[in-house]
Amino acid sequence: MFPLKAVNLLETPAKTASALRVLADPFDRHVSYLRLSLTDRCNFRCTYCFTDTAFRFRPRAEILTFEEIERIVQTFCDMGVVRLRFTGGEPTLRRDLHRLIERLAKMPTLEEGKSLKVVMTTNAFLLADMAADVAAAGVGEVNSSLDTLQEDRFQALTKSGKLSQVIAGIDAAIAAGLKVKLNTVALKGVNDDEFASLALFAWDRKLNLRFIEHMPMSGGEYYKDQQRVSAAEIRQQITAYFGLPLVPRDSKAAHGPARYWSQEGKSHRQIGIISPISENFCDTCNRVRISATGDLHPCLGYDQATSLRDLMRGGASNETLRRAISTTLAGKKARHDFQVNGQGGPRKSMISMGG
Ligand code: SAM
Ligand code: SF4
Prior knowledge:
Number of strands: 12
Distance between the termini: 31 Å
CATH topology: TIM Barrel
Mean pLDDT: 89
Bound molecules: S-adenosylmethionine, iron/sulfur cluster
Structural class: alpha/beta
Helix content: 25-40%
């Protein structure tokens, strides 16, 4: 049986199907956005992400092939998804990435006349050489991680990254005409003295900067709640540094979890804050996630998942795939329940899911 809001497109007249946003969870949140991890491998070892020393990369045979990715994405498009984000691990490590983008960026969606919008989150380390190809293939936006502007600190945080190369990647993306956003995970005692410099770096390049609250993945084992910087603390820091109050912007237009603020009287000086813990946004969640091995996760905060890869490799029909997606979504909870300091939380790691 199809649960609640999910609609079987095979039984839905084409006319009405196009007018429906067919995927919704039991809390009437529509799913229009799919985040898909292209690989669990990464060229960095960020201390806050690659936390689980027991983490092992999955054998290549377990990772979704391009054909499997295409089939999954097609199925989601048929059910109302209009936006796809590639993530990882590090998505730029996936060989022939531009070929995959070319195939997916042309995919029709239920929005009349509109094809799938493909975007990507990356550490930008390899972007200097790839930005033009990625843009030409059909990616319109990239989010680049940037946690510090100090080379030695960058080294310590990422273990193998090089800040100048990342900045070159960001600048190449801008030059290639990509819309670029910067993501900074806010960490007390690590980069909380750099929030203003990071904002100035972004504003100089007319980029959107979003601070992300640290989340306790991998069972919270290596997570220190004292290291988390709350949304209010981030705003307070930026306000104190520039001596100007921050005023809230209309964040609905941004279609995501970030809430935006700008300096009073200076609307171009804007920051976004993604605060899953201190200012929760689960009531507006519009997304689901697919891991590199093809597991469909309705929520980042729980380990609950369905292997779409196993279904496909077992010969499942499109109808069975749609049914599995609907059933998984019916189990989506109202909000995450991240727990800290080793008391629980999802066992899965951020590097395997892509944030
Ligand atoms: N490698 C790419 C990158 O770094 O942008 C994509 C994958 S990464 C897992 C996606 C995002 O998750 C990055 O912005 C990263 O900073 C963020 N992230 C990783 N671990 C996190 C955590 N424990 N809490 C909050 N954000 C985290
Ligand atoms: Fe790799 Fe991104 Fe995780 Fe850093 S945050 S280890 S770049 S996946």
